[in-house]
What does this fold into?
Amino acid sequence: MKQGDLVVRKSYGGDILFRIAVLNEQAAVLRGADYRLLADAPVSDLTPVRNPDELGGSRRARIQASESLHRMRAEREQAQSAYAKESVPRRQFFELPGKVLHLDGDANYLRKSMAVYNQLHVPAEGVHCHESQMPMLVARLLPQVRPDIVVITGHDGVLKSRSDLLALSSYKNSVNFVNAVHVARGYERSRDSLVVVAGACQSHFEALLHAGSNFASSPGRIMIHALDPVYVAVRAAFTPFRETIDISDVISHTISGMHGVGGVETVGKYRVGVPNIKLPSSVTPSAEFA
It folds into this structure.
């Protein structure tokens, strides 16, 4: 086995597909291939996986991701059609969805996320960096990018040796996400001016909300799918600025559901304008800061 290989853990019945992030003679640091989970395991507990599609859990996660993307497209088309009926024909107006800054601790997930933003025509800029770098990069990038929505995500997990779920020290990366949210709120205090989506698998939901997130994971300390933060960001980007995002609806349509994502009332970021004009390309290629 080597860094980058796909593996499962024998002791957990091979339920989750991981990619080896760090490997030494005795142990490995693992990052979920479909879920935003960070874990570690002895090398003796790992089994290599050559064909991920043979794993039921992995195959199911990919099907769910495809369904989530289909739902995002359908909702966008429905919103466009509703506006066209209520105001002017679609060909006569142009759209200004909310702009996203997406910081991700996983390069593969960032590429997938940027592909979704691109397909749905959401203006977005993506940055790959280690979770510990996120507070510093949020401080640097917010004044440069000036987004409407910032996504702060990567990998997280509850430490095996800790049982106090209310202590930040019980989590692998929640403190980094919380610090990044604090920085974002230092830049823009209003939850309606800057929408913050933060967290990963098993993250400290309460601490993230208290720090100023609009939406966060994970109320039930469960695994969240890689695209759940993207789905929430897209809904914020395409909810009209005169309306509040339907919290129950958006969360119930994430792959993880109510135990995986929670949030507070937030207004949308979508606007339209007339006459129709040709806007420049809206998606910026992801940057690498790792």
Summary: The longest strand covers residues 18-23. The chain has a mean pLDDT of 87.
